[in-house]
Write a structure and sequence with these properties.
The chain has 200 residues and is mostly helical. It has nine helices and no strands. It is globular.
């Protein structure tokens, strides 16, 4: 494996993507919930890219900008009251804002939060972790989730394993719910012959 920070070399590699193939057998570890664009090559990669590329355009960028401003203003309003102490801006604010924007833009989901505290997430019915807690539990335990079978994590007495497994289950449930919601909205829009963002 080659690692470099040489700008010219990076440009050459990116400009000749067909000459440099990703180690799919290694990257398959990323397929935690199923096949991914990052862990695919050849025809499979082209198919996934064909599906995902249309959503990243100027219209999407505009929606992201507008949604980001709206959610940031909500947080700024909370802070202006002077009764909110934030010790970790990246963890407590930015990561949650990013997740809320992504959920709203791509899945039309408004993540639940405390009406009196714009940055305090609330776990919806049927969940023991909030949206951000679930994805953070997965991202902070990737090595554990990649390296150990799920049946072992489910029975492990170690708290780190239990946290990783709970995050894995909760995030999977969130993704299934978002998928089902989008599918339902697509079907409704199709029946009414109305456009829907993800269906275009």
């Amino acid at each position: 494996m080659l690692m470099t920070c040489d700008v010219h070399l990076v440009k050459q590699v990116l400009g000749r993507a067909h000459d440099f193939h990703a180690p799919v057998e290694v990257l398959s570890l990323y397929n935690l919930y199923g096949p991914t664009l990052a862990a695919s090559e050849g025809e499979q990669w082209r198919l996934y890219r064909k599906i995902s590329t249309p959503f990243f355009n100027n219209r999407t960028h505009g929606m992201v900008w507008k949604e980001s401003l709206e959610k940031a203003e909500r947080v700024a309003t909370q802070w202006s009251k002077g009764d909110t102490l934030v010790s970790d801006v990246k963890g407590e604010v930015m990561s949650k804002l990013n997740l809320r924007v992504i959920a709203k833009i791509f899945y039309n989901q408004e993540l639940e939060h405390d009406q009196n505290d714009a940055m305090k997430d609330i776990a919806p019915p049927g969940h023991s972790l909030t949206f951000s807690e679930a994805i953070n539990a997965v991202l902070s335990n990737l090595a554990t989730l990649f390296g150990l079978p799920k049946w072992l994590l489910a029975k492990s007495p170690f708290k780190s394993h239990q946290k990783a497994y709970l995050g894995y289950l909760e995030w999977r449930q969130y993704m299934h719910e978002m998928r089902d919601s989008v599918q339902s909205q697509l079907e409704t829009a199709k029946r009414k012959e109305e456009p829907y963002f993800l269906g275009q």
